[in-house]
Fold this sequence. Notes:
seven-stranded parallel sheet, 14% strand
Amino acid sequence: MIDNSFWNGKTAIVTGHTGFKGSWLACILKSLNVNVIGISDFKRLSDNYKNLNTKEIFEREEEIDIFNNHDKLEILRFKDVDFVFHFAAQGIVSIANEKPLDTINSNVIGTFNILNFVNNIQSAKTLIIATTDKVYLDTDADNTEESRLGGKEFYSASKASSEHIISAFSNTMKREDLNIGVIRSGNVLGGGDGAKDRIVTDLINCLKSSQNIYLRNPNSIRPWQYILDSLNGYLLTAQYCTKNKKDEVFNLNSELNNSYTVLDLTNELLDSWGSEINSQIIIEDGEFYETDVLRINSKKANKVLNWDAIYSVSDIAKGIVEWYKLSEIDKNVTFKLIDNYYEKLNS
């Protein structure tokens, strides 16, 4: 359970705060009365970020490319920062295929730069780093946190490499009083994504414009999870690592949803959209390598953090549609969905 007193009045940096997960996390932190500082290169603005009144959420926003401007990072000496959540990354598989070097620079060198940056903020107690469920070498296996890492395409390879960098940094350079938590989360879905070549973005755009829906891998299985289920795990990890003064790695996977295909998710979204739909589903050949089946084991998070996902695929679809339909008239829709989620979680 989230400890409100633990977060009240603290200060947190969120890297990649203009992105999907980063902007949602910033809203949760703000609702917990945390002072939030955002760091981003501002190249990608999620639909959620664009819908927010950012001046009411962020104490400060810094425009920094964590790969190219690490010297600027070093100039920023924050005295009273308690936590850093690192989301800034190149997170799109198709872009990684097109621009492998940019992806490696962002996800590997960028991660090292953030590690070094946070290590020099003496007040910072805990650094939480988002990697991915795709870091595992054998993607078909029931992967635990101890399973072998690896990647068969540039995105997963870059993320697996970043984990080796995190481990090496922890073993050789990390100060003793800094705790590092690494989160390998399933495919996170929710309203306000907007990134190119993401399933929700593509589906919503097609539904809004009554265009046909093209699915390149309709039978691919992913560990789908709701944005708030996932981010709740990040907060619980920060609490755990800080209170126990230790580093940890956690998988976050929804047992409810880990057997659903891309086509299943698409049909759920179509059902939730509700109004007359003119879009047709068309299956097309995939243009680049993607894993067919991807599952991870989150029993450790269930046991240690008492974390679990509470949203089914149907709930996720409804939440996505609700965000997109209400965001057109309500700037506070994200905060309302956060309140609804925690009421449901704690009931």
